[in-house]
Amino acid sequence: AHYAASQIEKIKGFTVLNEHPFFNEFVIQCPSDVNKIQSNLLEKGILAGYNLESDFSSRKNQLLIATTEQLTRDDIDFFVDSLREATNV
Questions:
Q1: Whole-model pTM?
Q2: What b/e string do you get for 39-70 counting C-beta neighbours within 10 Å, with b at 16 or more?
Q3: 82/68 Cα distance (integer angstroms)
Q4: For residue 30, which of 57, 6, 51 has the smallest C-alpha distance?
Q5: What tens digit of pLDDT does each residue of 1-55 get?
Q6: Could you tell me which of 47, 36, 17 has the C-alpha nearest to residue 87?
Q7: Which residues contact 29 (CB under 8 A, 6 or more apart)?
Q8: What are phi and psi of 53, to 5 degrees?
Q9: What is the pLDDT of residues 42-70, one digit of tens each?
């Protein structure tokens, strides 16, 4: 999860919002509509986390990301590259 967070934070417009230590889940602020990002990633077979705005109106364009030990570094790199492409950044 920490590797994923560090790679996502390198994408222009994305910010990791966790202020406290985390294990396998973290929140990112996205530069554009999360529903569109999720839709673009789903076309690549990626379930792109949970849109927090669905339950928390103050969490606009925020995505909860979860990783497990099942994901390889290559899986995470593919996700990060796909995230970058999904936002045209």
A1: 0.91
A2: ebbeeeebebbbbbbeeeeebebbbebebeee
A3: 18
A4: 51
A5: 999 999 999 999 999 998 889 999 999 999 999 999 999 999 999 998 999 999 9
A6: 36
A7: 14, 15, 17, 61, 62
A8: -65, -20
A9: 999 999 899 999 999 999 999 999 998 89
